[in-house]
């Protein structure tokens, strides 16, 4: 089954692509031959070659969640893959003040770059700005700072796109059912990422004439997912589709569904955990799809930090510097394509 983006999302992507092509054409026709476009481009071989040792400080939240654990292990694995990277990992914490002190320590140590997944983007913004002002490039991962000056590069999962992908999939599955009951099990409502996911979901549903009939919010934990799902199922005697924002809390969501003996609906998950993909693969669960939220973001941050610190460019781009903002894709995983994604999945 193909999964279509909303018309709004398609228009945005096509507009961006048109601008990019126009810009490239303009660059090639402005000079005599356009051959200078490739002069500052590093090859993949040049980027892979060992260079000056880069000391990178990495700080992220406590790994109290399968996705966060995967983020941390992938960051370390990425650093280990380079013989010219020394990674200094601060203890994971959910205390913004402690994380601020970790950033300050990295600055005092004079690291070459900092990769930071903030426990709270707004709270860590000033500390990141101070690092940038000290000449240390900061790579912001996942939870965005409140000021673009706080980061040299930002790499993000597509939270709005997750919602669009989930909503588009549900629209296709419920095509023609204008009275369908759609439920949503969100994460932490106070986080911008949750708000973006819900906004994308609502926009996608609106494009096919549907809306969220029942909504609850959990806290990205198994216990929270189970508790709010029990409340949801009690309040809604009939449901046609559910989108659960997070596969870690989805373990609790599925437990509550099983305890209630409900199976009249199908469910879409979020993030891309291994247990979710195994359930999808089995065909024996109400969970029939999940939307990827890459757990490789910090690993990508390590790679970008190395390139930036060594003054290299991205080998597959012609622009002579590393982009300052990268948003990753949010594809839908179903039984038809799960074999393409399961090796990259994380354990809840």
From TrEMBL:
What PROSITE patterns does the entry give?
Answer: PROKAR_LIPOPROTEIN
- Subcellular locations according to the entry: Cell envelope
- Give a Pfam family name: Peripla_BP_4
- Classification via Gene3D superfamilies: 3.40.50.2300
Domain Periplasmic binding protein: residue ranges: 56-312
- Signal peptide span: 1-22
Q: Which GO terms describe its cellular component?
A: cell envelope
Q: Where are the transmembrane segments?
A: none
**Per its record, what are the GO molecular function terms?**
carbohydrate binding
Indicate whether Signal appears among the record's keywords.
Answer: yes
Keyword set, alphabetical order: Signal
| PANTHER family assigned | D-ALLOSE-BINDING PERIPLASMIC PROTEIN-RELATED (PTHR46847:SF1)
Q: Which family does it belong to?
A: Belongs to the bacterial solute-binding protein 2 family.
**Which named protein is this?**
Monosaccharide ABC transporter substrate-binding protein, CUT2 family
């Amino acid at each position: 089954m193909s999964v279509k983006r909303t018309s709004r999302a398609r228009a945005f992507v096509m507009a961006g692509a048109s601008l990019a092509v126009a810009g490239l054409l303009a660059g090639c026709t402005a000079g005599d031959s356009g051959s200078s476009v490739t002069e500052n481009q590093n090859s993949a071989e040049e980027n892979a070659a060992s260079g000056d040792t880069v000391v990178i400080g990495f700080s992220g939240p406590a790994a109290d969640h399968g996705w966060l654990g995967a983020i941390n292990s992938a960051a370390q694995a990425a650093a280990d893959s380079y013989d010219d990277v020394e990674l200094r990992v601060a203890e994971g914490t959910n205390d913004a003040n402690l994380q601020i002190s970790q950033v300050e320590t990295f600055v005092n140590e004079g690291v070459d770059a900092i990769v930071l997944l903030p426990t709270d983007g707004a709270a860590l913004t000033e500390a990141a700005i101070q690092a940038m002002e000290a000449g240390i490039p900061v790579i912001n991962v996942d939870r965005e700072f409140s000021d673009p000056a706080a980061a040299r590069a930002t790499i993000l999962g597509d939270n709005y796109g997750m919602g669009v992908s989930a909503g588009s999939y549900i629209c296709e599955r419920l095509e023609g059912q204008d009275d369908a009951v759609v439920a949503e099990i969100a994460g932490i409502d106070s986080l911008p990422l949750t708000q973006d996911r819900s906004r994308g979901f609502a926009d996608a549903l609106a494009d096919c004439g549907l809306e969220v009939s029942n909504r609850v919010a959990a806290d990205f934990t198994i216990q929270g997912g189970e508790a709010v799902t029990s409340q949801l199922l009690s309040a809604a005697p009939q449901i046609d589709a559910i989108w659960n924002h997070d596969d870690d809390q989805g373990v609790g969501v599925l437990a509550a569904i099983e305890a209630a003996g409900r199976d009249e609906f199908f469910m879409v998950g979020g993030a891309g955990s291994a247990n979710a993909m195994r359930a999808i693969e089995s065909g024996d669960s109400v969970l029939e799809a999940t939307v990827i939220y890459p757990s490789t973001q910090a690993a990508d941050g390590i790679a970008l930090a190395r390139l930036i610190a060594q003054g290299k460019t991205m080998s597959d781009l012609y622009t002579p510097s590393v982009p300052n903002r990268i948003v990753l894709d949010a594809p839908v995983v179903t039984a038809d394509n799960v074999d393409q994604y399961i090796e990259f999945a994380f354990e809840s």
